[in-house]
């Protein structure tokens, strides 16, 4: 028992003295003074939070947005941003489900009639094709508009 006590006493002394020795060994050097006047004038675009535009591009939380749809991206203020731009919001929101924007359906203009070749092509290609609304039923998901080479 005496050996364990002696060993623990030496170990405690070594740990206690190790914190004092380096402080006395190095001279105290004052930290360099940084002027706040210069640092306030420069703001990096990638550090800025929120939505803003610069140089014809849109940025959200430092991520560049794109005007057209991109797979895996989320829509915000008319632009598509990567999911990583919204990570702070997801952490606060408790892991909200991912939003998938539906693909837009552009109905034919009123009075616009498709050609017979288009109807024949879609009918031959898709078993579930309906000519009156120009749509077909894919294996997964909602009905989709048929777009042929004659469209």
TrEMBL record:
Annotated TM spans:
none
Asked if the keyword Signal belongs to this entry, the reply reads yes
* Subcellular locations according to the entry: Membrane
Q: Which Pfam families match?
A: BA14K
What are the record's GO terms for cellular component? membrane
Taxonomically, the superkingdom here is Bacteria
Topology versus the membrane: Single-pass membrane protein
Listed A to Z, the keywords are: Cell membrane, Lectin, Membrane, Signal
Q: Which GO terms describe its molecular function?
A: carbohydrate binding
Leader peptide range in chain numbering: 1-25
What does this protein's UniProt record list under function?
A: Has immunoglobulin-binding and hemagglutination properties, and can bind to mannose. Essential for virulence. May be involved in LPS biosynthesis or polysaccharide transport.
Q: Which family does it belong to?
A: Belongs to the BA14k family.
Listed name of the protein: Lectin-like protein BA14k
**Naturally occurring in which organism (per UniProt):** Oricola cellulosilytica
**UniProt lineage:** Bacteria, Pseudomonadati, Pseudomonadota, Alphaproteobacteria, Hyphomicrobiales
């Amino acid at each position: 028992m005496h050996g364990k006590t002696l060993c623990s006493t030496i170990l405690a002394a070594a740990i206690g003295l190790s914190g004092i020795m380096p402080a006395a060994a190095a001279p105290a050097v004052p930290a360099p003074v940084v002027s706040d006047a210069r640092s306030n004038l420069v703001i990096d675009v990638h550090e800025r939070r929120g939505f803003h535009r610069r140089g014809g591009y849109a940025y959200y939380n430092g991520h560049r947005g794109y005007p057209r749809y991109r797979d895996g991206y989320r829509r915000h203020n008319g632009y598509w941003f990567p999911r990583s731009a919204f990570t702070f919001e997801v952490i606060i929101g408790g892991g909200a489900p991912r939003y998938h924007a539906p693909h837009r359906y552009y109905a034919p203009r009123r009075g616009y009639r498709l050609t017979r070749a288009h109807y024949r092509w879609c009918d031959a290609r898709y078993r579930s094709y309906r000519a009156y609304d120009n749509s077909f039923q894919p294996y997964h998901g909602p009905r989709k508009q048929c777009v042929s080479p004659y469209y």
